[in-house]
Amino acid sequence: MSRAAEMVDGVPFRKVEHDVIVPKMVKQAAREACKDMIAEFEDCCRGRFLSLVVMCRAQNNAMQECFKQHSTDKDFEVQKKIFIEKKRANLERLSTEEGKAHA
Predict the structure, then answer these.
(1) How far is CA 57 from the centre of its chain?
(2) How far is CA 99 from CA 63, 89, 92, in A?
(3) N or C, where is the chain less crowded by C-beta within 10 Å?
(4) Main-chain phi, psi angles of 12, to 5 degrees
(5) 3-class secondary-structure state, position 4
(6) How far apart are CA 38 and CA 40, in angstroms?
């Protein structure tokens, strides 16, 4: 059973956008915000195998905490707003192009 698209600021917002696309954007933004922590963890892991679990625990915890701080509901709403603005601009561009094609 499919559900109709919700309207957000006059733009249709589908379930897949809510459940897949925007969360993916949140994860990407968190990765960008935490890139220094990720690099520290990667540096610690380099050359280790089993010992990385113990030796890199602090870096892993810091990286996970950074991800948590940048993956909140507020971050979701920010990314949702960015997505809606991009979608609105794209829909407006398409409608003007379509209008020119029919003129």
Answers:
(1) 26
(2) 49, 15, 10
(3) N
(4) -65, 135
(5) coil
(6) 5
Token pair 């979608």 is at which residue?
A: 87
**Which candidate, 93, 34, 89, places its Cα nearest to that of 63?**
34
Confidence of residue 12 (pLDDT cuts 50, 70, 90): confident
Task: Give residue 1's pLDDT.
Answer: 39
Structure confidence by residue, pLDDT tens digits, 61-85:
999 999 999 999 999 999 999 999 9
CA trace torsion 74, 88, 15, 64 (10° rounding): -30
DSSP bridge partners of 6: 13
